[in-house]
Amino acid sequence: MASNETEQWDAFFCATKPPADYDEQKRRIDEFCSAFSDTNERVVLITSGGTAVPLEHNTVRFVDNFSAGTRGSASAEYFLDQGYAVLFLFRSTSLQPFVRRFKPGELLSYLQFASGDDSCIQVCADAVPKVQPVLEGYQRAMAEGTGRPRLLQISFTSLTDYLFLLKACAVALRPLGSRALLYLAAAVSDFYIPPENMPEHKIHSDAGPLQLRLHLVPKMLKPLICCWNPTAYVVSFKLETDENILLDKARRALATYKHKLVIGNELHSRKHRVVFVTSDDHEVINLTPEQVAAGVEIEQIIVEKLVKRHTEHMRNSPTRRSSSEVSMTVGSVSDSSSLP
């Protein structure tokens, strides 16, 4: 590993500030991951949503990346169905598992207040078929009453928040060895403004046209794979608007960072077509017209295929404990087709 690359990563973290609640978030991450360190269970880190790049220290304006968090939030549900515990690192305004199935504000319209001596809040009878399976899925994930939830959600807003928390998550999962899967679906900005170049207060328009000089963000995939968590099964995503360059860009990423898999998708077809790219092969995954009509989400297929690849990774990993542990963790906790 080149020393100048290491210096770039160190310089970035030294020059930027962690989230205001970083210590508390790190405590929650460490506590969640340590609960699975002495088990045979698999844990997936899913990153989801876009990262904001502030233009001022007292942020009013920012540059944002396109991402609603659809892929990450849907994938979290399907990984839970496959028996994984899920560490969900998501943009605060993006979609979340389970509640993603309701439109903004829709859930309140399904509730009614029943007054009286035993006043309570009830779900409207005609909304039960929609709300019940979602609520049951959430309660299974939170393992209510067992003391060990299988879903932890950690939010971020800015690019620097995301990178500090990504490192904390990757390091916390390191003791799990090959049982950890890193599913990096967040839309991470390639550019940022260093803190020393940002004004303290709001940029005003009376100064005339705004000219920005954005710096390249150091590529954090390399330290993640080489230093923070070298034994996990790491999956990154590549979104392009030109499908003709997608395979080449994905293979270049694999050659540069030495991870296991790139999932390529094109902006306008991403909801029904993706490409699994490895260093020596690629597999196109298309939803059939019948699957689309039936409401099948492509994330269900992605996760099912990833579970098989992760199993193979565990079998081939020198850090695995035994072959029986590999087989013990495969299979669904519940039938994913039962989700709405």
UniProtKB/TrEMBL annotation:
It comes from the Eukaryota. It holds the Pfam family DFP. Belongs to the PPC synthetase family. This is Phosphopantothenate-cysteine ligase. One of its GO terms (biological process) is coenzyme A biosynthetic process. GO terms for molecular function: ligase activity. Keywords: Ligase. Residues 181-285 form the DNA/pantothenate metabolism flavoprotein C-terminal domain. Residues 316-325 have a biased composition (Polar residues). It comes from Rhipicephalus appendiculatus (Brown ear tick). Residues 326-340 have a biased composition (Low complexity). Residues 309-340 are annotated as: Disordered.
